[in-house]
Amino acid sequence: MRFLYKRPRIDHVHDELNTVMEVMISDLFIYLDLFVFSFIFTMLLSPAIQSLTISILFFIASYCLFACLYYFLFSRIMRKY
Asked: What secondary structure, in 3-state letters, does 23-53 show?
């Protein structure tokens, strides 16, 4: 069965991996992930939050906190190198 499967060239594999890495480390993708994680974090803490207004404010605050942490800690450090 192994002779039926032809391995791709290493150049083609490197091109595909570079494309995937560019998407995974793009700022838009990271901010979208932070949005989803903030939403999940807010939903998990919803039993402890009293009202809808406070939960919306908590969501916005957690998203801003995580986005600022990413921007000031990781984004600036990576751009220096």
From this structure: HHCCHHHHHHHHHHHHHHHHHHCCCCCCCHH
Angle at 38 between CA 36 and CA 42, to 5 degrees: 115
Distance between CA 37 and CA 66 in Å, rounded?
9
pTM of the predicted model over 0.90: no
Cα 80 from chain centre:
21
Judge whether residue 57 has pLDDT over 70: yes
CB 79 within 8 A of CB 43: no
